[in-house]
Amino acid sequence: MTELRSFDESLPMALLNAREAAMARFRPLLARHDLTEQQWRVLRALGAESTPVDAGTLVDSTSLQAPSLSRILANLSDRQLIDRTSSSSDQRRAVISLSEQGAALVAAVAPESETIYAQIERQFGGDRLGHLLGELHDLAASLEQPAPERQ
Amino acid sequence: MTELRSFDESLPMALLNAREAAMARFRPLLARHDLTEQQWRVLRALGAESTPVDAGTLVDSTSLQAPSLSRILANLSDRQLIDRTSSSSDQRRAVISLSEQGAALVAAVAPESETIYAQIERQFGGDRLGHLLGELHDLAASLEQPAPERQ
DNA sequence: GCAAATTACTTAACATGTGTAATATATCTC
DNA sequence: GAGATATATTACACATGTTAAGTAATTTGC
């Protein structure tokens, strides 16, 4: 009989717990600004771009599903945090950018977010955290490769 | 002006992406057995216990909220995957254990899960993965400590 | 140049989950 | 026994995942 590995040895559970613990630090900040995690992911992604992006790009960079993103964009647009137009060369494409208000919100959240991040680095160790980040990226990259056939 | 750290440097995003990548490997397995991630977390937690547990214990071990757990238990109970009684010594306490069917389901999923896990270890390196798990546990542990006051 | 296929995005519908608050019900404390 | 506390469930409002269908714009093949 195959023994199932314990909770502690489960990679998905370890990742979930670590993320939960990290988000617990950030969630109050987002709540103060009436933002869900996903809404913040979108605003953050937009803030990272120097030029307006289309919805497909956002789907990729935020790891959200297209229907979820549509709803979130509608919400952010209602709140006037983003501007939406359509590409002149391809009118199917939505072109999205931070509005002035949206940019101001990102600018307001950023320093608080960095403060929290600095706390985490002090507690866990900056170098150690940097190394962990690298490992997480590598792990995600190898997992995105198809599983090799067993020889 | 505070520059927001890029997506790549964000710990929550890195954890989310890594978890997504990992779950992508496991999700088809769960789907074949008509289980959501959370339902599986509960069954797995129950499978790990040698004795029946109460709902509060499950809340802790699965990182689910009590109301979510209640609904999930109702669902699993409808599907006869768990048995629920109440403690004779304290009738507020729900006493939950895997049913015979539930144990059979866990036993059916376990070997497939281990196969997937072994693939991940082959791709990423077993030692490296073990070390990463340790770091994730440590990170979660330090994050669960209250943030120290800045000196 | 036009019908058919494709692409990009949106909308709908449904199930599930989160988060907070309110509600039994049982137990404990005085 | 009255009131406080603990355990679990229920209720509600909302966000998200997922699948499917819909709309409009563009490209392709003839």
- How far apart the termini of chain A lie comes to 23 Å
Q: What can be said about the biggest beta sheet of chain A? A: 3 strands, antiparallel
Order of helices and strands of chain A: HHEHHEEHH
Structural class, from secondary structure content of chain A? mainly alpha
What is the percentage of strand-forming residues of chain A? 5-15%
The CATH class assignment of the domain at 33-119 in chain A is Mainly Alpha
Number of helices of chain A: 6
Write down the Rg of chain A: 19 Å
Fourth-tier CATH superfamily name of the domain at 33-119 in chain A = Winged helix-like DNA-binding domain superfamily/Winged helix DNA-binding domain
Count every beta strand of chain A, where a strand is a DSSP E run of 2 or more residues.
3
The whole-number mean of residue pLDDT values of chain A reads 87
In the CATH hierarchy, the architecture of the domain at 33-119 in chain A is Orthogonal Bundle
Strand order of the largest sheet of chain A: 1-3-2
Oligomer: homodimer
- The CATH topology of the domain at 33-119 in chain A turns out to be Arc Repressor Mutant, subunit A
Coarse shape of chain A: globular
Q: Would you identify the regions of chain A where 5 or more consecutive residues have pLDDT less than 50?
A: none
Helix content of chain A: 55-70%
Summarize the structure.
The structure is a homodimer of 151-residue chains. Chain A has 151 residues and is mostly helical.
